[in-house]
Write a structure and sequence with these properties.
heterodimer, A: MetI-like fold, 9 helices, elongated, B: about 525 residues, alpha+beta, Dipeptide-binding Protein, domain 1, Dipeptide-binding Protein, domain 3, 2 domains, 13 helices
Amino acid sequence: MRDESEFQFRLGIVLLCAVVLAALVSLFYTPFDPYAMNTAQRFLPPGLVHWFGTDQFGRDNFSRAITGARYSLLAAGATVVLSGVAGIALGLFSGYFGGPVEAVVMRLTDALSSFPGILTALVAVSVLNEGRYTIIPALAVAFLPSYIRLARSGAQQCKNKEYVFAARACGASTKRILFRHILPNLMPTVVPSVVIGLSNAILAESGMSYLGLGIQPPIPSWGRMLAEGQAYLLKAPWEALGAGLMMLLTVLGLNALGSSIVMHFTDRGARRL
Amino acid sequence: MKKNIALRMISSLLAAAVLLSPAACSSGGSAVSSGSSSAQEEKTPQDGGNFVYGLQTQPRHLNPYLNTSADTRVILFNIFEGLVKPDKDGNLNPAVAESYTTSDDAASYTFKLRPGVKFQTGKAVTADDVVYSLSTAAGLKTGKLLVAGLKNIKSVEAKDASTVTIHLKEADYDFLPELTVAILPKGYTEQDTHPIGTGPYMFESYSPQQKLVLKKNPYYWQKGLPHFDKVTFKLESDSNALLTDLQGGSVDGASIANNVASQLGSEFQVIASNSNSVQLLALNNKTEPFNNADVRRAVCYAVNPDEIIQTVDFGKGVRCGSPVIPGLKKYCDTSLAKAYNHNTAKAKQLLAKAGYPNGFSMSITVPSNYTVHVETAQVIVNELKEVGIKATIHQVDFATWLSKAYHNREYQSTIVSVDGATLSPRSYLSRYVSDSDKNFTNYSSAAYDALYRKAETEKDETKRIALYKQAQKMLSDDAASVYIQDISNLNALKNGISGFTAYPLYVFDAASLYRTK
């Protein structure tokens, strides 16, 4: 069990570091200008010069893929932070206080989660409209219900535990009880779900960009590259494959990391008993 | 689970995108059978056989007066004919009518019907049928105008069994293009389920989401036409399904996109023709900074249509400098295509003159279902960057585009292809009249309005053409928008099929096609 958890952890860290490093490098250096078009160079297959080949505009796919990493990671990270913070806070309050607060929050959550996530995000994009980064709040709204549910059920379990009674008896404020006593005890479930949430957000952002509602061209994002590459899948599959490979590595890394964290916590819990 | 939903969403959106994809709307016409196209005349036509045409659409109305979808018109063009019909050069030739005369004041048009024209039921077309058809389409009895172009009809009168006179509310020397509207048998009420007209092919069956089958009209008035016994329109869900069917051999021909064309094997011939719409970077003349003509001119100089045609359309496309399609040879001022040749220095100079020496930021709204426009936008962003203009692309779905950008005119610039309803330059030029409800660029010029009115009411054709050209020149000089190109429409046909005829309208003529042996 421990060996596997460690392997997963290492795999996740290595893959993620590679992708994050690529994104960071792209800030200072890309082999080619990711926006420069050159029709004489279109549809070049992968080779030593163009690692992922070139697209229909003759742009270098590798430069675009690592530049895209920046935007895809940024969008996914911001989405998860936004929906995680808001969702966990709402969930904690509603779980701890119960009553009408809980009823209102939970019915709204039910309403939100009765639509498919992508549909909610699509609606949010159209409502929020304008702006290059609309995709972030839009996806955050779509991701909200899962964090609210998670934090609420945790808070419900914890609020009748002895240590919470003890803290209350000592005169701890509600804020302190929620964030110093209950929240740390939810970490074993919250942390993996944040990590998995990141990988879901990357996929969702790609889906939205694929539909043309995510990050706007000519800024490269992985979903955008998939969409543009799809039209030439038989002729020049490398654009879609390059972007797909980057996505695969990132999602694989995040999932490995997530499951290693779960294993780590269960392992620790088992040992403590 | 989530992924499934995402996939389903994607596929349904793609289907919607595909339905909307070809150039917007163009108004119906009637079947044409001007014989084979010149390039293939040496081959001998073989009569008989079947032909399957792949079409990415689902017909809504089969009744030609109710249908508004350009893709359905592609089908109906083969079933119906009007008093006159367009030919491949944009001329109007008599069809159901044999000849016509216009009264001197252009307030009435008199048509002499062609003897021997029969409906697909075998019944001869009489003046009563024509009166019935035009009155219904113009809503004379019901008050409900079905075909917008016929608004000007006051009354339709049968002089005798084969003569019909159309009286107009206002004199109009250029009313003929509207009379391509279908002639239907009087009193027949099943047009929507079983259409009957005078065209070369007659309706046989329709299975929604599968196919629509037409068969040869044995009573067709043009001898020797059509060639095929049966023409099937296979209704494809998306371009991938179409590509599979083309490669698998179950479809003989289809209108295809560039990326599909590049993946077809050698058993197909790909014929490029005009799409009959003008792609433009529409500049909202009412918003900053495009209310300044020098800024608009600067953008015209900054954008390079040749580069767009080369990059986005693989070199296939006709550069265009006016809103009138090049296919309307008589009216289009082709000299304007090069009115603004790519010139970065001049663009910068004009920007400095207009008070933007360091450029400005602008947004380009693009309907996301049109890949070609999104790709064009990407090229334009790069081109504008060279003169210091920072453009960002803002994609919206087509419904949003239609309501926000087109109807409410809430946009700064947008890329779209605009086509016309009829073979008249009016359908392209009328939208620049200041108070036109179609004037989505908000172009406003008293001089243009006066010029357009003058052209519209000019009696002499030569003078009228000159005036229409003058109007185009004015739009070009004022840089009303950036006119880019008439995007190529590609048709794939299996080898061994000849006679493809391209029209300056969004139609597909099955009658001129034949198999060679």
